[in-house]
Amino acid sequence: MALSSISKLNWAAATNKSIHHHSDSYFKKRIRIAAAQSSGGGMAAEYEEGQLERPKWTGETPLSRLVGALISFKPLYSLLKLGARQVLISTAEKTSIPWRDMTNEILDSDVYKEKDAIEDSSIVYPDYYLNPFHAYDEGNLSWLAAAEAEAATMSMVRRAIPNASSLDEANQIVRGNWLQAIETHHNQYSGYSSIQDILDIGCSVGVSTRFILDKFPSAKVTGLDLSPYFLAVAQYNDKRRNQGKEKVKWIHGNGENTGLPSKSFDLVSIAYVFHECPERAIKNMAKEAFRLLRPGGTFAVTDNSPKSKILQVTIVLTLSCF
């Protein structure tokens, strides 16, 4: 299969990339870059690059190793964790996102039963997934992380599009442009073949999955994630919104090796996952996505842009909050 094009769409704090393949000759060096048009689906937003190509404390550098060592010191990590959470909670409270109410609603529900039904006990978690991140000691393997995930996502969208008048407008820009780029690209390079089967790798609690389903309502949508806690929340919310029925098939699995049949999806999407993964995991997930795609299918990636001024300022604020 060949990479025939990459559609790139920058907005305030993220970069969307739709990667498309046509044949089985893997990764030929035929790559084009084209600006994706957001007509009919998204809204324009000004994108401003930060001063840094990337923060000096990232990557394999002496400073990054020093930062890693400092973060591994538990008392300091606890302070950093508190600061990071407070930045998101503060943004939520200032923009009418009911963070605490949303969290308590999940924690006080019957969501725990969903985990028993969806968890695959044979899953072996990769080492990087067991590290603390996102201000949680257990990473994504905890009920608190799962309960707060949707509110945190809302808060990040508001931080990404600070000039939006509402969360809905911010989502129109962030999600609308992403979905329109996918549709435009697929129509252009797939001969207008319909998108019938969709896989959302790293679906978390299903926020991105719901947007995909709304955009392609006739498609069969599957959400896959490594966290049974997140999937439990996703499945619980899916049933709650649809009178006990599930519109999405939720799978507890590893995006690096899903175990799903080859050439079984028209669209594979990975949204806001790669920035949390080591290079080896990113490569494995990309290879797996191409294995899963049917000829003419579309592989879409959207993630944070490290060159975004807003994102760089947010990271600095988070690190300084402790």
UniProtKB/TrEMBL annotation:
It comes from the Eukaryota. Coiled coil: none annotated. Signal peptide: none annotated. InterPro entries: Methyltransf_25, Methyltransf_Superfamily, SAM-dependent_MTases_sf. Residues 198-297 form the Methyltransferase domain. It holds the Pfam family Methyltransf_25. This is Methyltransferase domain-containing protein. It comes from Erythranthe guttata.
